[in-house]
Design brief:
Layout (H helix, E strand, L loop, with lengths): L1 H22 L4 H27 L7 H18 L1 H26 L4 H23 L8 H21 L1
Helix pairs in contact: 1-2, 1-3, 1-4, 1-6, 2-5, 3-4, 4-5, 4-6
Length: 163
């Protein structure tokens, strides 16, 4: 669980870095993205520490997630600020599902990890809701874009669990 969660938070920081590289810091959407990126960085820092403390090997795919995340962020931001928000909405929808499944699987076995996942899940839902309020669903072709990004998230989760 830690391997895939750390990989996911790393990927999220890379997506936001790609979006910020395109939007800069003056665009109104960039302020929203910067706030979400700060939360994702905190999530990553905590999972990095948990991985080190528990001697869990990170995914070997991190270099791939570095490039893929940054590219996804940059491409969606190049499409439009609302497309960048559509990316966030899609990713966070899939992460909510992933975190819910993890919490169910954990039960009472690891209360510290469960508390961390639960806290982060709440922030991810906030990111999704913020993106939707910013017009994510108004992007032309949103259902297709969202489905594509969500499928990519599911594939990244599955691969990070194994590699």
């Amino acid at each position: 669980m830690l391997r895939v969660d750390q990989a996911g938070e790393y990927g999220a920081t890379r997506i936001y870095a790609g979006q910020m590289a395109v939007l800069g810091d003056r665009h109104p959407a960039a302020r929203v993205i910067a706030r979400m990126a700060t939360q994702e960085r905190r999530h990553l820092d905590i999972f990095d520490k948990m991985i080190a403390d528990r001697a869990v090997r990170p995914t070997l795919l991190q270099p791939v997630w570095n490039v893929a995340g940054h590219a996804l962020g940059a491409v969606t931001a190049l499409m439009s600020p609302r497309a960048a928000m559509a990316c966030t909405a899609a990713v966070e929808t899939e992460i909510d599902k992933h975190y819910r499944e993890q919490l169910a699987a954990l039960g009472g076995d690891d209360p510290d990890l469960a508390a961390t996942i639960s806290e982060f899940r709440g922030e991810e839902l906030e990111h999704r809701d913020t993106a939707i309020a910013a017009g994510a669903e108004q992007v032309p072709g949103y259902p297709v874009l969202s489905a594509f990004i969500r499928a990519g998230c599911r594939a990244a989760i599955a691969l990070s669990k194994r590699i």
